[in-house]
Every structure is written in structure tokens, then in C-alpha cells.
Task: structure prediction
Amino acid sequence: MIVALPHAPNKPLERSPARIRSLAAAHWRRSPHLGAMMRVTHCGRSCWALKWLIPMRDHPLILVWFLFAAVSLVGLPRTAHAQAGKVYRIGFLREGPPPQSFVEAFRQGLREQGYAPDQNVVIEFRDGSLDQLPQLAEELVRLKVDVIVASAGSAALAAKKATATVPIVFATVNYPVEIGLVASLSRPGGNASGTSFNAAELAGKRLALLKELVPTVRRVAVLSYPPYHTDARQLKEAEAAAHILGLQLEPIPVRNPNDFDAGFKAVRGANGFLQLDNPFFTTHRARITELVAKRQLPAIYGYRQMVEAGGLMSYGPDVPDLHRRAAAYVDKILKGAKPGDLPIDQPIKFEFWINMRTAKALGITIPPALLLRADHLIE
Result:
């Protein structure tokens, strides 16, 4: 039996809370549960449902489902409004100024997750020397940021030392387990997770590409940065790969920007160049590629940013994309996920870049096989 609501056919249903309560009272005897629920859902947004609810009182299962859906819908706008009004604060920490491509990729990742940088997300950038990172990390903690994004391992270690409670999302960290940042790749534990890759394992591939480009290469200068926490590991892997390829490495250790000139002057007899991965070298990429060009050395780097700055070749992960993917971790954490439960993401694709202008300046002809394997050519 269908019970019609007592209102004129052409008159809109009255939506005031008083009207709802009066209707509930009128039907209380016939359906007390309905009357009680109508008092709970008294806001005007649910009034349209009354003419459907009353006929359903004899079908309790359908009625319960319908009322549950109606109450949920009533709550949605308020929840959405609360989330829309929230402004999150994210700390971005790095040793040295981050390349603009890293920053733009991270911002793009935030937009893909539904955030609007500088509107409902504010990014606090902090960068400095290796010695300044601990102080900068503590400063972000005092600002009460919701998440700290650490670009590279030195920043991640500084953030980890500064806080055990603020979530940390790291990007492009080498050996996060071995350096004590996380417990495992699948279940990091603690307050940190993110994207990583093992640069040391790439040394052999890079040296092989260099030898394929210049078959006569025998002695390779290796630019290293001893203060960096993975420098020794990367150098050891490079030496092992060089031994297999019949190459001899000549390390060029630098500890600050003033060491570059003296380090390159000390190189004797090298006819190839390899650079180890760390943010210090990325910061000074223009100076490094300039000195390598003056020495007329065919060179290979880890990041494409070095090739864009004038370097000859690079082989490694898409580092800006790893920063973009870090934004997905930020989103999950802001929605309640624990960093220690989020598996660490590692790249499955690596890029090979060649700067054809630099090759021409060096008088090097790139073999066709290398050209075919290159992912990107800078003409």
C-alpha cells in the first residue's frame, strides 16, 4: 500500500526541519523506526526521500539500505568541505638547490593526486650544504610540516635523525636498507618510505657504454665525493666493473667546490671520465661539465641533467619521474597511511641520453649501435 504525503499536487514539498518533524510524528505509530530516523536525517537535503521512505516501512531490509545510503549522502558534502578547507604543509629538503625539473615533477605529481600547489598545499623548501642539512631538517620539524620530502639520501638521513614521528617520503635514495634508513624494501617500518635505486649497480653498465663509444679507452678518471654516505660503495662497484672490462680507474676526490680545479689538474693520462652519483655533483653540474670539456674527455654520467648541462652521455633512472612518484606517497600518508607500511618503489626503466652537440665538439662519432639504443638525443 502506498501512502501519499499530505501536500497539494502542485505545491513543492516543504523542506523545513519543523515540517520533517511533524511528518515523523504523524507516522510514528505506524512506523516508529522510520520516525526516529526521520528525526536524525532532518536536514533539508534528505527531504526529497520522504515520499519513498513511508511506502517502504513494510520492507525493512530495503528500508534500512535506503536510509543508510541517505544518511551517508547527507554527510558527504560536509566531509568534502572539511577536506577542501585543509591546507597541508610539506617540507622539501635537499643537499644543494634541487634542479627545477625535480621540483616541477613533484608539483605535477601533487596535481595528479588532486592537490593544488600554493593553494591547498604549501611547500617549504630548504636546501644547503651537507653540514647544514641536520639544522634544516630540524627547522622543518619545528614548522610542524605534515610530511618531509627528502630528495636524495643525505637529506633523508638528516630528516630521519631529526624526527621519528613526522612522516618522511624520500626520492632517489641509494641503498636505503644498507644505510639504515629503513628495515626492508617491502616493509620499511618506522616513519620513512619512498623511491630508491642502487647507483653502484649501474657503474658497470656506464663503463661498458663508455668503452663501446671509445674502444681505445684504458684509463678512466672517476669523480668522487668522499663525504657522501654511498661514495665508497659506488667506487668499489666501479672498480670491480673496471677490472672485468680491462680498465684502470683514477679517482678524483673532491670535498668542496674549491677542489674541482685542483682535482682535474691532477688527472694524468686518463682518456675517459665517469662521475659517481650524489646531489653535490648535480648542484655543480655546469662547472663539472665545463672542466670535462676542457680536458677533452669522453664522459658518462648518471643523470640526464648532466647531459642537459653539456655532458656527453648519461645512463640511469628518470630522476624527475621518481620525484613525481614520490607525490603518491605523500597523498597516501595525508590520507592516513603509515610510511612504514608502504613498500619502497624502484625504477624498472633506465634512460640513455646522448648530447650530439658535445660529441661534435669533441670530434667523436657516435656508433650507430649506440644511437639506436639511445632514448634521447640532444641535437
About this structure: Residues 60-84 form the longest helix (25 residues). The chain has three domains: 17-82, 88-198+321-341, 200-318+350-378. The radius of gyration is 30 Å.
